Amino acid sequence: MGYSLDFGWLRDAAGAIAHGAAMTLFLIACTTVFGIVISILFAAARRSRYGILRKAVAVYVEVIRNTPFLVQLFFIYFGLPSIGIRLDPVVAAILAMTLNMAAYTTEIVGAGLDAVPKGQGEAAFALGLRPRQVFVKIILPQALKVIFPALISQVIIMMLESAVVSQIAVRELAHEADLLQARTFRSFETYFVVTLIYLALSMAIRRLFVAGGRRVLGAGVS
User: Where are the transmembrane segments (predicted)?
Assistant: First the structure.
């Protein structure tokens, strides 16, 4: 018995798919902003003179990188209510994604900081710049330029991982796809379309980051 493709349902489902894609973009936008800011702070903390900060960040990174993202998500959404902390599904998803992404990008940013020649900082100090000015204006821009390709890849990986948050009923793209295939019984067509959308989102995010990176960090970003 042959299988006949049918994409007729797509017209009625376009709104739901668009909503799911928009939610996916919202999740990754929030995660990227919060995650990169946290990773910069944590990468700097791992290189501070305070041992307790270095150890705390190291423990956080190891815990997150060595446990499944799904378990982290369930701990935040299902576990925290046991001690009186109840979060909206979208808030829980953003928190889980941010904590997960920041653990990986902390190491990426740290590698960039280590790649900047020490002479750059020493020269800045010799000119009378304060430590914060040296880090923000001299060290960090050079580090970000070095790690930019890895940073983009991590953002895209996290966008793809966002499909996991459908498990706590966040209506992102994967969740909408699951609802559609349950209604239409067209699993092949549904997931074929959604796969193309994820691919398009990945390419769009990469191009957007490259364009933004070239504008902020200058030529050489790719």
Answer: 20-45, 57-78, 90-113, 190-209
pTM over the 0.70 mark: yes
| CA 185 – CA 10 distance, rounded (Å) | 13
Q: Residue 219 — very low, low, confident or very high, per pLDDT cuts 50/70/90?
A: low
Give yes or no for residue 101 having a pLDDT over 90. yes
**CA 202 → CA 2, 11, 140, 205, distances in Å?**
33, 24, 26, 5
> Are the beta carbons of 166 and 175 closer than 8 angstroms?
yes
Q: What is the pLDDT of residue 222?
A: 57
Domains and CATH numbers, the chain: 11-216 (1.10.3720.10)
Closest Cα to residue 150, out of 203, 115, 117, 107? 107
Backbone angles phi, psi at 7, to 5 degrees: -110, 15
* Contact assessment for residue 222 and residue 210, using Cβ atoms and an 8 Å cutoff: yes
Indicate if the pLDDT at residue 1 is higher than 70: no
Name every residue whose Cβ is closer than 8 Å to that of residue 142 and which is 6 or more positions away in sequence. 112, 116, 120
For 112, 151, 205, the CA distances from 156, given in Å and listed in that order, are 19, 9, 7
**Cα 58 to chain centroid, rounded:** 19
